[in-house]
Amino acid sequence: MNTLIVHKDADSRLDSFNGPILDHEKLRQGTHIAVLTAVASVFLVFAVKAVYLIF
Question: Is the overall model pTM greater than 0.85, yes or no?
């Protein structure tokens, strides 16, 4: 005998699986940290090159 998955059960199972993986707030924080890290690294490279050219 085949049984059908009730839509409510499928949603709760998907929510419990996707909850920690697709936490949008943590994803947004991680994106901000990645962008700030990229900007800081570019700034650091230019600062080191400027110091190198001065001396």
Answer: no
**Which one has a higher pLDDT value, 29 or 23?**
29
Q: Which residue has the tokens 């998955």?
A: 5
DSSP line for the chain: ---PPPHHHHHHHHHHHHTTTT-HHHHHHHHHHHHHHHHHHHHHHHHHHHHHHH-
List the structure tokens of 55.
């001396």
Distance CA 4, CA 39 (A): 52
Place of tokens 């419990």: 16
